[in-house]
Amino acid sequence: MNESPGKRSSQRCVRQVAATALPTGWGVFRALGFERPGPFHRPLETAIALILGNPWRAPSEEAPLVRIHSECLTGDVLGSWRCDCGEQLKLAMRAIAEERCGLLIYEQQEGRGIGLMAKLQAYALQDQGLDTIAANQALGYEADCRDFSLPAAILNHLGIGHVRLLSNNPEKRRVLANAGIVVVEQLPCEASPSPWALKYLRTKKERMGHMLSKV
Q1: Whole-model pTM above 0.85?
Q2: Annotated active-site positions, please?
Q3: Is the distance from CB of 59 to CB of 42 less than 8 angstroms?
Q4: Distance (Å, rounded) from C-alpha 18 to C-alpha 50?
Q5: Which residues of 60-77 are buried (b: 16+ CB within 10 A; e: fewer)?
Q6: pLDDT at residue 1 in the model
């Protein structure tokens, strides 16, 4: 017998598995580890919520800043100029630190969800002239394979129902709204582009609807 969507959803409830202090250059965050069973026998889904200050403020106060950031080893760790991910991460951490309050949810969805090796294969196709969407499709993937329902589930788990979203991606706002989270404001998280990233960013703006003003 086929399972209902509601039953599948209940079986994939997010759970907190760790909590610790994480001192950074932007302040001492509270790091919470979350996991959720993957759909259709896929691997476990995991994410880290970095919390600074008290995002559970009274409803009359301003909603907390929230950044949903997908893992990008090449940009976040190695400092690649082919994307804007590393700079976006720094911008978000800095913005949260300046307000002394907010959350950054870092989830493992490398390469828009296709994984590191496929991402490198897509880069090789881009070297031959394909844009990011065409490269993904040539490898048999969608333009964006990510699923932002885990960050939404984490916010609901934490009881945070109103946010100011640091993102250029309209899909993140849509997913949060569908999960019952009120996006009071969507704020840009836009870095100055490197020459290597211009085509990538233009594709995101023109073909994926990202709100970008510097390309």
Answers
A1: yes
A2: 144, 146
A3: no
A4: 12
A5: eeebbbbbbbbbbebbbe
A6: 34
